[in-house]
Structures are given as C-alpha cells and as structure tokens.
Amino acid sequence: MARILLVEDNELNRDMLSRRLGKHGFEILIAVNGEDSVAIAKTRRPDLILMDMSLPVMDGWKATSLIKADPLTRHIPVIALTAHAMDDDRQKALAAGCDDYDTKPIDLMRLLAKIRQFAG
Question: Does the pTM of the predicted model rise above 0.85?
C-alpha cells in the first residue's frame, strides 16, 4: 500500500480527498501547511506527495523546492494540486520541482491515474 502525504489547508478538501484515496487502498498522511509537509516528508518518507500550492506558513512552491533539494526526500514524487489553472501556473509548479500538476476541483480518476504512474 502506497503512503501518500496530502498537503491541504482546506479542511473540506482534505477530508474529502483523504477519505476517497483511503477507499482506494492508500495510507494517507496529512499536513496543513508547507512547513509541516517538509518535516513529515523527512520523517515519514511517503511514496508520493500531493501538494496544494496555496498554503499558510510556507507555500507549496517553497515546500516543494526544499523537499527536492534534500537528498533524503528529493526522490519523492510531488504532484501539485491547485485551483490555479493557467499554463504559467503549471510551469511555475514544475520549475519548483513538482513532477506533475493537477487542477482543482479534483477529477479523482485522472488523479488516481497520476498517482499510480508515480507510486504504483
């Protein structure tokens, strides 16, 4: 069972997505801001990170760049999750180190395909 770190500050989005992913057999770890996501990535070593980009304390772009700069965590795939759907938002996420990008509202089947691509 793949372990996914879900980084989402919106409680409704976090609860909905964690329940839906759990039903598909994934173990879900939760972080509500970018700073916590970096710490959890280092200590729990998830198989994949779903990273909201608009976060308190530290945004997802900065958190992703720190995760990708650390030799202990740089191998962990990061999928950006954002309501920002412009092409330059996608490029900004990829430039920060994200391995893929998906938009909100979440299309669960599309997201599951991306998760399986990176985390089996």
Answer: yes
